[in-house]
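Repro:
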Amino acid sequence: MRRRAACMGASGDRNLVVAGTSQLYVYRLNHDSETSSKGDRNTEGKGHKEKLELVACFSFFGNVMSMASVQLAGAKRDALLLSFKDAKLSVVEYDPGTHDLKTLSLHYFEEPELRVGHGLGTDAFLFPMLHRGSY
């Protein structure tokens, strides 16, 4: 599974985005303060509990091979770069109006020299991997 932190929701909070095969899962981290039991005490005597809550699940026609989050100029939330087998790349962002992903652009690299794994011989194929400066 591939995972990435991204600002996807309407609230501006950072979410955990996990890609598993042909599904994309978006989780929110909930912070619950509660009085603690004997064994769970911090300096104030109160417990702190964090839970991941699944807030969205999206399906794709194809397996997600790689994922990166990017901040596009003028955007309120992050976009996701999703790469798929056979040198396909999608740029998507969350649309709070429809509670769905909106495709901003699709790319297909037809030239063999632009595909990752070109020239490695016989049946060698490396899935397209996304890299950007720092995470």
